[in-house]
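>> received
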Amino acid sequence: MYSYDADSAAFIKRAQGLTASDCARAGAAVGAAFGRGRVGVACRNDEYSRACADAVCAGLRVSGVNAWSFGASFESQLSFLVPFSSLNAGVFVCAGEGTVSIFGENGLSVSAALGRKAADFMETDLSPAPSCGRLFDMSAMGMLYRDELMRHVPYGVADCAILSSDSMISALINDCMRTTSNERTLTLRINRRGTSLSAYTEKTGVVPFVKLIALCGMYELESGRDISVPYDSPAFLDDLARSYGRTAYRYLSAPSDGSDNVARRLAARQFWSRDALFTAAKLTCILEEKNMTFPELYSLLPPLFVYSTTAQLELPPDYLDEFVEKRGKTHISPLGNGRFRLTAQSFDEETARELCAEAQAFISSGAK
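>> returned
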């Protein structure tokens, strides 16, 4: 019934919605999995999610863990507050989508082993801890996120429109950034989790998050700084980093060991690579500093197309690998519950799709 999904960091997904029992059990499971310290809890801005978050806090406290209640928020804000507050973990509740998600001490998704451990504890009758944890109202901490975001917005007026289906995100980013009231040539759209961003102009069409990350990463490398990006970010960043004598670190969505610890520590303080609000601020700052339009900046990227899909594959871990050939590169990463993400990078969409299909066929045939 319960399984960890590294793609969304969720270890509860119930299409019919969450119950108080689910949420209390989730809190106890996270507390048992970590076994110590402080865990932050946040939720969507609706009464149903708030009630479920209260149940998560109750479960954490019964397991002996102190619960920091951040109240109504969004996922990327919780991802910021967990490392900022030196918490052991964070739990985000979205009652409308029927999900409870877990984040590690660096604000990123937890390891595959820890995610499975929390999911396994959901099926276990846990005994209460010898002493009850305490509950702390930390709802005012959201102002610290706003203050940090304000430090990253451009000094001037940004010639763009920033939209989001989440009213909290829309209000926050537009309150922090000054945008023109004239006809805007650039539209930035943030998803309701605050974890992804797309850009649109008539000249470029829709530009996905992975390419916006590449633009920001390119700027950081040119400025003489190392970067940390998700594992499936464009491969050209590695070559570019070497040309500047820097390093492009990569972190996994669900690591099986500590091989990406350095990348995760850097990503914990490099907000633009994982928080769409900071990405939007970073992008507009780059445009202001370089005095360029978005199409002009976008033209600096080498030709690349990234295609990603998920598949249900029955295969042993030995078959998880990376396929590199002249036409491009395909990366396969586990998401949990028998699901895998295949991400291909090439110079055009058709080739990237073909690479994904070929990699899936190869792995499926090898698993038989």
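>> The longest helix spans residues 349-366.
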